[in-house]
Input
Amino acid sequence: MSSGNYYNVTTWPVGNPAEDIGEVFNSIIADVKRRQAVTNENMGGKPGAVIYLPPGDYRLRTQVLIDVSFLRIEGSGHGFTSSSIRFNVSEDELSGLHELWPGGSRILVDIPLNEDDDESTGAAFYVERSGSPRLSSIEFSNFCIDGLHFTPDGSELDPENTYVNGKTGIYIANANDSFRINGMGFVYLEHALTIYDADALSIHDNFIAECGNCIELRGWGQASKITDNLIGAGFKGHSIYAENHGGLLVTANNVFPRGASSVHFSGVTRSSITNNRLHSFYPGMVVLAANSSENLVASNHFLRDREPWTPFIGVDNGLDDLYGVLCISGSNNSIIGNHFSEVVDVHHIRPAGAKPVIIRLIQGSSNFVSTNHVVGVAIQAKSGGSAFEAQVDALLTTETLEALPVTTVKVDSESVRNTILDSGSDTDVVVDTAVNAFRATPTAGSSLL
Amino acid sequence: MSSGNYYNVTTWPVGNPAEDIGEVFNSIIADVKRRQAVTNENMGGKPGAVIYLPPGDYRLRTQVLIDVSFLRIEGSGHGFTSSSIRFNVSEDELSGLHELWPGGSRILVDIPLNEDDDESTGAAFYVERSGSPRLSSIEFSNFCIDGLHFTPDGSELDPENTYVNGKTGIYIANANDSFRINGMGFVYLEHALTIYDADALSIHDNFIAECGNCIELRGWGQASKITDNLIGAGFKGHSIYAENHGGLLVTANNVFPRGASSVHFSGVTRSSITNNRLHSFYPGMVVLAANSSENLVASNHFLRDREPWTPFIGVDNGLDDLYGVLCISGSNNSIIGNHFSEVVDVHHIRPAGAKPVIIRLIQGSSNFVSTNHVVGVAIQAKSGGSAFEAQVDALLTTETLEALPVTTVKVDSESVRNTILDSGSDTDVVVDTAVNAFRATPTAGSSLL
Amino acid sequence: MSSGNYYNVTTWPVGNPAEDIGEVFNSIIADVKRRQAVTNENMGGKPGAVIYLPPGDYRLRTQVLIDVSFLRIEGSGHGFTSSSIRFNVSEDELSGLHELWPGGSRILVDIPLNEDDDESTGAAFYVERSGSPRLSSIEFSNFCIDGLHFTPDGSELDPENTYVNGKTGIYIANANDSFRINGMGFVYLEHALTIYDADALSIHDNFIAECGNCIELRGWGQASKITDNLIGAGFKGHSIYAENHGGLLVTANNVFPRGASSVHFSGVTRSSITNNRLHSFYPGMVVLAANSSENLVASNHFLRDREPWTPFIGVDNGLDDLYGVLCISGSNNSIIGNHFSEVVDVHHIRPAGAKPVIIRLIQGSSNFVSTNHVVGVAIQAKSGGSAFEAQVDALLTTETLEALPVTTVKVDSESVRNTILDSGSDTDVVVDTAVNAFRATPTAGSSLL
Output
């Protein structure tokens, strides 16, 4: 009977969900499959099931293996709170804290790991099935996956600030269709979402922050969307990464620092990065690499400024200011109608004295760059001990600013036949007009009429 | 008591939800109305109810009639899987399939139909009420409506590939307000959503694919939104259709093939098609017809290529390559900042030897077309037996491509006083500059400075 | 045990949810905290709880005080219906109405108020906690907050049309992180959402209409999003208001009349208003005030026409047609690729005979205004007794229209070094080209090539 397809982890008779929710999930999934096997004998459907986690702390010591379609795992709270702030609070403040941990329907990832374990071993949820059809319509909704702690990385950083721990939230190992990740919270994982070979995937309205990497679409894929998320990776990883995808729509996301990149595409074609708010502390904010072609980057707000929070001062992604904020190796891309704010202290520009590059065409041909507005602002860098106060202060300061000279567009010699329109004045754009088309943004007194 | 407004189809005493969920719904709705009638005597509210479907297969033999506001029907799984792929699998692969049908909280539409039945007869959910006020705030959430099979259409196509069967998922027959369709799955229906006279409707985050038509907004309407959906109709129908709507927002959708059009507006005004990823196998991808005026089409990614999947090779929507990928009959529209990729085999262009038209202004006046980037690519068409592998291959192939000459904008003589800026070079645009304003995209060596 | 964190208001032993849901909520929250205190002794987590409201009418006489993180309040229906239409129905129609009130999981705000009460006293939900950390991950989902009636404002308006009653839906008094407002309905409140000091807030997919003010982000804040909502305030208030925010993303909203403004920013920086559909009856539709800088306003559809509904004819926000539809006091903003329709009766223009101003740069410097399309249409104003029929009629009428001369961009003398490109012809734009850069939109016969 259909009502048998509704499970609640707190009432399932096998295992103890507080001690090892993984054992409980695996036992439930085995039950779903056992019951489907009976149904299948008369060629009926296999509708899957929903597994519900009420708010609560659920330690996960055993990896969950999902190999059945139409499974929905649903909680009642994405439960994000900033572990990063909490771990950087001074000793005397610690005892006064109202709470120490994320909450909601919260899974505490506590799988025992060895140093040479495969990346997938540290995943709370491992999704894999061979044969046909691909797994379809698996849904994760409104619960929290918490990696608990980061671990030493050999540097002098506080271990809780390294963004590494070998843990992954959800690892989808092979081809899949129509999956849905909605309303989830991810925190303190080295990888939040690692997904191979996605078709018609939807990652929508999640909170994915303080993870080494947030969203990684690996292998290949098509026709997916990453929409309306709040996202922010650590300095070693990507907030959004995709390789060999076509028809991917990345829109309406608010991507905050401190990812090494906000969006990194490798060999991605015919896809969109439109209408996002992107904020980063380093160059290389958005990278179209490895012949990423025919993509649209439009109506985005790019803000690149500097890390203002004391524990991470001096940390960066290793790129200098000539690298470009938006870097393109590929052809036939459209870069239209974006706003760029570059807000830096001239004393921190690398190499010293350089003019930072905003849009850089590295390799390829026939890209179209039009109607982009670049604002360069020189500031006196400040920092602060409170993560969000320091950030808000930095964000809101615009009044007493000086203009910062920048190269709005730089076209390298290996990128040719590009068209650069209205994206910087004659002195702002570096381009060989013998092999590229160029129309400078008019300046006062130079009216074209 | 309020808890009486929560219903579960599997525990309701009337009917058998596995055999005829329609009878169960109608019995529950009658109960809601019976209880409201009592409440209404003392002029209290009529808060409606929620009806829950756990994951399961629910056959629907009796149409559900909804004539009460504030009803929410909620499942735990949109349950899409590709029936199209399954029905085109070879006989010997069939027995090895893990599952054969969509799943989740799944309604199997199995209403007996005669050939001369009215279109609405085949609807699983029929929503209608006369008098005032209009029905308000009916919500459909997170379940699957499956039409099961397509039927012969008189052609030589396999019946399962015809996209016709007389079935509709949800049919809303008259004026309505603040309805919400969220997280649903629709598959193998001739019409997924047919909605008349919508006000402040929200169709958000659904999976609507392998249906003859996906979203049809008929009659008239205003102030609605179609956002963040994965959508793909069949070759006879529309992925998104609207007529006589004002203030409609179509955004953040990923529309995949093979609809005859991705978006078709008829007499639609002051509406937006912005920031979508659109992919089609035919011309006529986006059509603004019947004096559709003052609309904004901006920041969209248009990809028009060719059907790569064997079962549908040779099928199309009947339009030739001079028709235009984006076609406008109307006035004062804004076409700004879109990317177009036209990727075709020159041997398949119709009429033979023609230069395909991308943006076509057919009739009207004073349209503004600016800053659109068109990429024409000539390929050697390939096809394959696996639907998604063939598509992904086609999508990702950009390296070994030749440029395809196209007409980026063609302004017919019956469309006048238009402004065409930076949307193609002198040789790419066909326009009478005596009655239209035109500024060509500069080419290398022709710098305006 | 975790299942203890799931509460249902209809089964909680304290209080009567139909008579005072506030007492029930406060009793449940006290229980959550009592149980957390025990857990905390062993330094465990405090996962919060979910409180469920089935569909039903719940009167709220006692304010709910929320001071615990990870609380989710969830209903099964946003329950909007137009109270505004109902209160303006003629006496003889009234008895024939199917229903009189909003529905769904509906809270009837009925807190006794005195005239000198603080604004927060009239809030149904009051969220406040001092100390660290900030409250995190409180979620409101899928229920209705109904203010029931408006009250006399000293004018001659019907009291039900004044948009004042001292009531607020949710009032968040101090710094907060990762809150989520999803799928809610708000109606007939003077303030729907008043939120101070928000960080990473998400207001997504709500229905907020017929409220004096809809969304107010006060104090300061960062990295938040207001996405995919249906919103419409009253003539005295704002549909969306934000002050001192950085990195705010306002996108994919359909904002209908009749707010005094659709979006009002005060001191907001590095934020986005992109890809919205905006409709207003007055000038001052979008205002960037108080040095709002480095913002992106792109790909929006602006429609400014006139109130067509009889009960509100003659009511407005007090601004004349020289004020501007989009008004900017600030620097380095980007205004790119927007569509504007100004549809007015020349007899109603104020001051009489004036050319209405569409984009106005009042104060600041270095704004970039490019590729905006402005359509001016002169109509014969009509009105009607039915709210939605009058609006739809007005929206769909484009055929028999005359062009209305407008000033597409006006740059005041206190705003300098701006760049105005392709946003109006020589005669449409008022700008001092000695201190601003200007390129007129070409007109027919004036081709730049």
Q: What stands out?
A: Chain C touches chain A through 86 residues (CB under 8 Å).
